[in-house]
Amino acid sequence: MATARSRATAAIERRLRRRLDVLAVGRRVTDSAPAILQIVAAVTAAYAIAHFAIGHVTPLLSVTFTLSALGLARDARPRLLVETIVGMLIGIALADLLVLIAGRGLWQLVVVLTVTLFVARAASPSPGFAIAAAIQSALVMLLPAPVGGPFTRTLDALIGAAMALLVTALVPRDPRGAARREGRVLYAVLSESSGSIAGSLAEGDAAAASLALTRLRRTQPMVDAWASSLESAIAVARIAPLLRRHLPELRRQQTAHRTADLAARHLRVIARRTEYLSRDGVARPELAELVAEVQSVLGDLGRGLDPRAGGTAGGTAGGTAGAPDLDATRNRLATLAGRLDPAVVSTNATAPEATIVILLRPLVVDLLTGAGTSADDARALLPEI
Predict the structure, then answer these.
(1) Please, what CATH class does the domain formed by 176-380 belong to?
(2) Domain named Integral membrane bound transporter: which ranges (predicted)?
(3) 153 contact partners, CB below 8 Å, separation of at least 6
(4) Tell me: the pLDDT tens digits for 15-28?
(5) At what angle do helices 220-239 and 152-170 cross, to 10 degrees?
(6) In the chain, where does DSSP find H-type helix?
(7) 0.85 exceeded by pTM
(8) Where are the domains of the chain?
């Protein structure tokens, strides 16, 4: 019987893994679709110009250069693209120049690869970029001389560079979706963790606080990934006419990112104190209610990242569709701030219960600031200690 049960469990696990693998593949393909379309458009344009307009029979470097410059990485910041283009252009031009001066051979290949790799490492922190640039220069050294004469391949590379930059501006990847998704995931983790803290306080369960602390310690990579996506999205939106109108939304996401970063730091401290406090097994419903309100607010802020959301997070006070309305959230936070008086929870200012309330005060101030209240007004809402 035990063997049959273990086999059934193993079969279920295998089916779940296959299903998760399929979902991961689907997500990966869907996320890469805009980049793939951008790359194909740029390669097609670069090949057409080099082959049909200029007359290069086989514009190999126009194609390979465009592919290497754009890539499938989600970080599409124009500055990084320009660095990539400059590094690869230097490698190709050096290779063309050395072929013209010294011909082809092993030592010429060694010189070009050495110089290209050093220049590429200076231009970009990505090891993959350095290898891509070296491949471009090696192609120039190893392929037969083109029909068009010296620096034909440098011209092909320039065409590829121009197409990469033009397509980045006119057919941009829209990284708002990835940034928004990463923000919602981070806020969901913060909300779930604060819920575990509230549960720990409500039931005197130290294990729940320990679980929250474990989750919160894993949020820093999420914070960093969201910051990278936002930086890329804003950089692209500044130069892309089609995305420039989304800059206000991205600026709001930046504010939400700073708020989430600060909230994660505060909650880690609160989770540690709660884990210690709950070891006595005593339920503290008053503190649990305060933290549960924080959990609810974090959930609202996370849902407000989607401009299409409705309810608490959707629509402005004036009713503008698609824009987040934070009025209700600010009012709830203002009410919560007014309740954060350690003396109400404990007459002993040094008691552990009072410490939790004191730790909640800067968290609520940061949440209010993230919701649009000035820092001075937010602090003024706190009871005097």
Answers:
(1) mainly alpha
(2) 46-167
(3) 60, 61, 92, 95, 96, 139, 140, 143, 146
(4) 656 665 666 677 77
(5) 100
(6) 2-48, 60-70, 78-102, 106-123, 127-142, 152-170, 176-203, 206-217, 220-239, 247-277, 285-303, 327-338, 342-345, 352-370, 375-380
(7) no
(8) 33-170, 176-380
